[in-house]
Amino acid sequence: MSQDSIAAGAYAGQAASSGASRGLWTSRWAFFLAATGSAVGLGNIWKFPYITGVHGGGAFVLVYLGCILAIGIPLLMAEVMIGRAGRKNPSDAVAALAEQSGASPRWRLAGWVGGLTGFLILSFYVVVAGWALAYVPAAASGGFVGLNGESSGALFGALLADPLKLAVCASLVLLATLLIVGFGVQQGLERAVRYLMPGLFVLLLILVGYAATRGAFGQAAAFLFAADFSKLTGEAILVALGHAFFTLSLGCGAMMAYGSYLPAGTSIALTSLLVALADTAVALLAGLAIFPLVFANGLEPGAGPGLIFVTLPIAFGQMPLGQVVGVFFFVMLLIAALTSAISLSEPTIAWLTERFRISRLKAVLLSGAALWLLSLGSVFSFNLWAEGTLFGKTFFDCLDYLTTNLLMPLGGLATVFFTGWVLKRKRVSEALNIGHPALFQAWWWLIRFVTPLGIVLVFLNLIGVI
Ligand code: PHE
């Protein structure tokens, strides 16, 4: 046997035992696109601009960038590392690593809760993505022309009041998500992000170009980048921290699942950094696409959650080419949501197939049915069940609160604690393979002290203790 074939045989054995038969991304680039697709979503285009608007602009953006650096990136690296080292769905990957470090495999619960969190988020994420879907034909047919604050609010209100339309839109988004995920890692996820992500980026650049030529670009840039610290409140800092978490898809198994398909030898540190950079760039560019139009039309930047679905359509209705630009905008939002939705479902699908040894198709159908029923709950909470509340919150609000405010920070905290205090330093250093001892030391310090402290602060604030 030649040296090469021995090496190839050894590699194949290693690959099979490390779970490569589950499929791997074909390249580092594919992982980068998929992870960026997960990170870039409604959070970047819908949420980031409106929370920046509400919290006064530049200083908030600066704090947010600090949170991404000190908390988001270290945790993203930890999640991808756990996924790759365990080569399984989040729950089994955590258990495998725990055992290797002599800890209880019961730590799998942390991965399991992560998967459940992603599953629950997905059930209402498709409903919001459905709003974007409903707004594409509305924009195309000139439905925004002549809107003012009141009529635009009424248009959005009419959508929310229509259970059938909402259900159809959410179901279509869910169907598209499941269809992509059903085809597996390479044929489904990878193929989808290869086309969708460049498309999203081109649309974003067109929109920024349009805003730069037709909108109040200077005013918007000043709003986003001139830091006035007198406007910064304690609450704003915590919102920035919480958002850094959400926007990088942390604390819910998504990045762990994607990490489990990452080829050995790819630098986790570098790729995570690039994903975070791309995600931040998209959030800032989304701000630069939206605010110039808002300012140019004399509208309110601090309008809150309605910024995109109520304020922006008024601008589209007033501007030259607004019909086309409006369609581009909502298609972009839809693509961003879809590439996030597939990452939200992957942990559950991987868990079902690996734990119960069922086919991917069965796993997709099973989880799809459960997701669809849950999503109807969110749909009805805007109309038929609007009165039925728990602690003053509708079903949709309850799910949003439970996942974003409780489960995600808890999942993230469990992950950092597990990485920094339960796993053996040597095992982590091997798995991360950062190459540079000083860099590893810096990351290790962040993961053990800074990241957990940041998460505890967000958590306490969100549940109203501070
Ligand atoms: N990061 C996505 C966004 O910004 C949301 C998301 C959260 C996706 C968690 C996957 C997992 O919209």
From TrEMBL:
Keyword Metal-binding: no
Residue stretches spanning the membrane: 29-46, 58-78, 109-134, 154-183, 195-217, 237-258, 270-295, 321-342, 363-386, 406-423, 443-463
Source superkingdom: Bacteria
Record's GO cellular component terms: membrane
Main location: membrane
UniProt keyword list: Membrane, Symport, Transmembrane, Transmembrane helix, Transport
Transmembrane helix as UniProt keyword: yes
Residue ranges that the Swiss-Prot or TrEMBL entry lists as coiled coil: none
InterPro entries recorded: Na/ntran_symport (IPR000175), SNS_sf (IPR037272), YocR/YhdH-like (IPR047218)
PANTHER family named in the record: TRANSPORTER
Name the UniProt record assigns to this protein: Transporter
Organism: Pseudomonas indica
